[in-house]
Specification:
Number of strands: 23
Largest sheet: 23 strands, antiparallel
Structural class: mainly beta
Shape: globular
Order of helices and strands: EEEEEEEEEEEEEEEEEEEEEEEH
Radius of gyration: 26 Å
Number of helices: 1
Length: about 400
């Protein structure tokens, strides 16, 4: 129950954990975070290192430490989080967390203290005290959350949250949220809807989302989702509407062909109004066990209108095709892709990429590749990358954990 953000964030973690004793478990992993705003994309890869310790004489208590360190040119700071969690009786939990952020010649802290409690099997509450980075005020937050299952296929949820500053008695806000989830009896269709409103002294924010997915036939699957956000704080009128529809096709009796197509419509209105259409069609076909063909067509059309009535439109399209071939008992593979990118201003770019890979063990691949672009447009330089690159792939399934366990014990 927070106000709509201008940042869309995608975070993917791959973590390997090992139990060194009955009381201590350590883990190491990689993190990839992508922050996407209306004007830029920033990738933040990082290393994760941490551990969980349960004191032998304090059952129900867990002490944790986690370090997240960026690499690869990311401007994200290093973060260290220390925490202690205790559940004295089932359903009642207390916690304390301190997060330290190490910037350029500075160290800032972010602390949390709170507890949560299950009042019954459908109602839960929480109380938190949070002191933010560089803040002299402590934010007090009280929340109640409930969930009711109407039947095995339909459930409803609600929540209310109130926050205020302890020292200055300022920055108070109240959020109310409602949600529902539904599934068909045959489990071939699912849907969800949620909405929340946050009330603040500076204004209100509203958010709503609706999505549905299902199988038309065993070969066809469809998905649709719409998100709406309205920010009316500080006299603003910022609106965002995003709708996406997609379809996937894979024949059950001959699954060598895979097709995925989607269309997205975006409206964003602040001082200016932006209307964007995005689309993509991807297809892949396995000729045999060694040869795989792929093709793609994608595009984006955007219209920008100012308050004075001036408007501008830009359209960019892409076609791409290639193949991937495995040989040497599936230990080696080669790939080749060609692409053509053009826009409505008369700019066009041709690109070609080649790659050769080696599988040192099952589930792992190391590949060396090269991309070359011709007739580049400076206005579209962010859509392609040139030069050599090294790619490493790892299959994240149970066999990976077995191999890592063998490595750690050797």
């Amino acid at each position: 129950m927070t106000a709509p953000s201008d940042i869309e964030r995608l975070t993917v973690d791959a973590v390997y954990a090992k139990e060194f004793s009955t009381n201590f478990k350590g883990y190491i992993g990689l993190e990839y975070r992508l922050d996407h705003t209306a004007t830029s994309k920033k990738a933040h890869p990082g290393l994760i290192l941490g551990g969980h310790w349960t004191p032998a004489n304090r059952p129900g208590t867990v002490i944790t430490a986690e370090l997240r360190h960026p690499f690869g040119g990311s401007d994200r700071p290093t973060e260290l989080t220390l925490g202690m969690y205790r559940e004295p009786v089932p359903g009642w939990r207390a916690y304390s967390e301190v997060e330290m952020t190490f910037g350029d010649d500075t160290v800032t802290t972010h602390s949390k203290l709170g507890f949560s409690y299950d009042l019954n099997d459908w109602l839960r509450g929480s109380t938190d005290f949070v002191k933010g980075l560089g803040s002299s005020d402590t934010m007090f937050t009280q929340a109640m959350m409930g969930k009711w299952a109407m039947n095995g296929n339909t459930s409803f949820s609600f929540g209310i949250e109130h926050s205020r500053s302890m020292e200055s008695d300022d920055h108070r806000l109240t959020s109310v949220a409602l949600g529902a989830k539904w599934g068909s009896s045959a489990e071939s269709w699912v849907g969800d809807a949620d909405a929340d409103t946050t009330f603040e002294d500076s204004g209100n924010t509203h958010y709503a989302s609706f999505g549905i997915a299902g199988k038309i036939t065993p070969d066809f699957t469809v998905l649709g989702r719409t998100r709406v956000a309205l920010d009316k704080r500080d006299g603003r009128d910022h609106r965002r509407i995003r709708s996406r529809a997609g379809i996937a096709y894979r024949p059950v009796h001959d699954p060598r062909l895979e097709v995925l197509a989607w269309y997205e419509h975006r409206i964003e209105q602040r001082e200016t109004k932006s209307v964007t259409h995005m689309w993509s069609v991807d297809a892949a076909y396995e000729v045999d066990a060694d040869l795989r063909l792929n093709a793609k067509y994608a595009g984006q059309s955007q219209k920008l209108t100012t308050l004075g009535g001036f408007s501008a439109r830009a359209t960019t399209q892409l076609v791409q095709a290639g193949f991937n071939y495995e040989f040497g008992d599936n230990r080696f593979q080669i790939g080749l892709n060609a692409a053509h990118l053009w826009d409505n201003q008369g700019n066009a770019t041709n690109g070609i990429g080649a790659e050769i890979g080696f599988a040192p063990t099952k589930g792992a691949l190391v590949a060396l590749g090269y991309n070359r672009a011709m007739n580049k447009s400076a206005l579209r330089s962010d859509l392609y990358q040139e030069g050599f690159y090294l790619r490493f792939k790892l299959l994240l399934d149970n066999s990976l954990w077995d191999r890592l366990d063998s490595f750690m014990e050797s």
